[in-house]
Write a structure and sequence with these properties.
- With 282 residues, this protein is of the alpha/beta class.
- The protein has two domains: 169 residues, Rossmann fold (3-Layer(aba) Sandwich); 93 residues, Pantoate--beta-alanine Ligase, Chain: A,domain 2 (2-Layer Sandwich), CATH 3.30.1300.10.
- It contains nine helices and nine strands.
- It has a six-stranded parallel sheet, sandwiched between helices.
- Helix 3 links the parallel strand 3 and strand 4.
- Helix 6 packs across helix 7 and helix 8 runs antiparallel to helix 9.
- The termini are far apart.
């Protein structure tokens, strides 16, 4: 496994890479969810590239940039064990050198939900992902569905800019109690951790309502909120029932639909989502 810290160095290694390249973009603090993306890339591509970069431009004032976990030696060992061929691990100065002045703004699916609660977040995400795709030139890039709005924004950006890459969505990996894996889960205290599963329980209640025949989005949203509000310490920020490509809110579920949640538990902000109306549910 080669670890490259500069754009020039990565591009030189990329020129020698065999066959199709698959990219797994990460901010490090790798967990089983990231490794599931690596496995998907490994199965589909001759060369697997992994980026580890805590992107400062997607963090807002007062967010956790300074304390975001950075266990780089552990990450590199996990990457090597998983079969990664190339790791791109640049500094902030390498990605944003003095005079950097170009950013990508995505409208549409970036406008609501996380876009409203974290102003500027998707500007940073779209810019860094576009730059990573230009640097690494993969045929495929693998993203988890846990950050469903991010996945949707990246797809929109790649399509609008005609980037020659296929964006591959991969399923959420969960703990036994349903908590979606996230690098930020390490912030949860032992007392808070059991209550994190409330997000998945709430989403499953939404699915149960749809399976039982409920089609009114406001009713399903209220049922999800009720489960969240019963969980000690959980403070919902939003619950949205949306069309999965535009992320526009739905009034009724007549076709594909996704439920999105953001909530705080102690000092930790958690997000999760499920498909409410996948094939066979309606």
């Amino acid at each position: 496994m080669q670890v490259l810290g500069t754009i020039k160095g990565f591009r030189a290694a990329r020129r020698d890479a065999a066959g199709p390249v698959g990219l797994v973009p990460t901010m490090g603090a790798l967990h089983a969810g990231h490794l599931s993306l690596v496995r998907r890339a490994r199965a589909a591509c001759s060369t697997v590239a992994l980026s580890i970069f805590v992107n400062p431009t997607q963090f807002g004032p007062g967010e956790d940039l300074a304390r975001y976990p950075r266990p780089i030696e552990r990450d590199l060992q996990l990457a090597e064990d998983a079969g990664v061929d190339l790791v791109f691990h640049p500094s902030a100065e390498e990605m944003y050198p003095p005079g950097f002045a170009t950013f990508i703004e995505v409208g549409g699916p970036a406008s609501r939900w996380e876009g409203e609660h974290r102003p500027g977040h998707f500007r940073g995400v779209a810019t860094v992902v576009a730059k990573l795709l230009v640097i690494t030139t993969p045929q495929q890039a693998f993203f988890g569905e846990k950050d469903f709005q991010q996945l949707t924004v990246v797809r929109r950006m790649a399509a609008d800019l005609a980037l020659p890459v296929e964006i591959i969505a991969c399923p959420i990996v969960r703990e036994a109690d349903g908590l979606a894996l996230s690098s930020r889960n390490v912030y949860l205290s032992p007392a808070e951790r059991p209550h994190g599963a409330a997000l998945y329980r709430a989403l499953q209640e939404g699915r149960r309502r749809v399976a039982a025949g409920e089609r009114q989005a406001s009713t399903i949203r209220a049922a999800i909120l009720a489960v969240l509000r019963e969980a000690p310490g959980v403070r919902p920020e939003y619950v949205a029932i949306v069309e999965p490509q535009s992320l526009e809110p739905l009034e009724r579920i007549e076709g594909p639909a996704r439920a999105l949640i953001a909530a705080r538990l102690g000092s930790v902000r958690l997000i999760d989502n499920v498909s409410l109306a996948d094939e066979g549910l309606l």
